[in-house]
Amino acid sequence: MTTVRVVVGGAVFDRGRLLAARRSAPPSLAGRWELPGGKVEDGETPEQALERELREELGVEVAAMERIPGEWPLGPGFVLQVWTARLVSGEPQPLQDHDELRWLLPA
Ligand SMILES: Nc1nc2c([nH]c(=O)n2[C@H]2C[C@H](O)[C@@H](COP(=O)(O)OP(=O)(O)OP(=O)(O)O)O2)c(=O)[nH]1
């Protein structure tokens, strides 16, 4: 049986703004904007993985809130699931895997 690994992406909200992150790695994805996150490791819940990834990559504490229904296929063997998350503390910095961050506002 093949296992599908889950990548969790965070729709991080703070004061009505949504966070977008531009990848700097790997080269095939560099320059593309995404919801930041990463792979769920063995023994972790998606919520724990999201909170860990955003601590590592952006230096912030977030609280995962609710899963957005559905999932999106990525490369072979991976799917993306998205959770809303609330910024608890810190200002996001592109520490790892990203070179630019933007807070999006309604047009
Ligand atoms: N976070 C995130 N990843 C995405 C999105 N779309 C998309 O194709 N991906 C891909 C990019 C990566 O290949 C993979 C996420 O893995 P990652 O490299 O950020 O995860 P990680 O920190 O656990 O990485 P690793 O060091 O274990 O390789 O999913 C998206 O919207 N958000």
TrEMBL record:
EC number: 3.6.1.55
GO function terms (MF aspect): 8-oxo-7,8-dihydrodeoxyguanosine triphosphate pyrophosphatase activity; 8-oxo-7,8-dihydroguanosine triphosphate pyrophosphatase activity; 8-oxo-dGDP phosphatase activity; 8-oxo-GDP phosphatase activity; metal ion binding
Alphabetical UniProt keywords: DNA damage, DNA repair, DNA replication, Hydrolase, Magnesium, Metal-binding, Mutator protein
Gene Ontology annotations of biological process type: DNA repair; DNA replication
InterPro entries: MutT-like (IPR047127), Nudix_hydrolase (IPR020476), NUDIX_hydrolase-like_dom_sf (IPR015797), NUDIX_hydrolase_CS (IPR020084), NUDIX_hydrolase_dom (IPR000086)
Family annotation (CDD domains): NUDIX_MutT_NudA_like (cd03425)
Claim: Repeat is one of the keywords in the record: no
Catalysis performed (reactions): 8-oxo-dGTP + H2O = 8-oxo-dGMP + diphosphate + H(+)
Pfam families reported in the protein's UniProt record: NUDIX (PF00293)
Class of this enzyme: hydrolase
Keyword Iron: no
Matching Gene3D superfamilies: Nucleoside Triphosphate Pyrophosphohydrolase (3.90.79.10)
Cofactor or coenzyme needed: Mg(2+)
Protein origin, superkingdom: Bacteria
Residues annotated as signal peptide: none
Stored PROSITE patterns: NUDIX (PS51462), NUDIX_BOX (PS00893)
Residue ranges constituting the Nudix hydrolase domain according to the UniProt record: 3-107
Family of the protein in this entry: Belongs to the Nudix hydrolase family.
The protein, known as: 8-oxo-dGTP diphosphatase
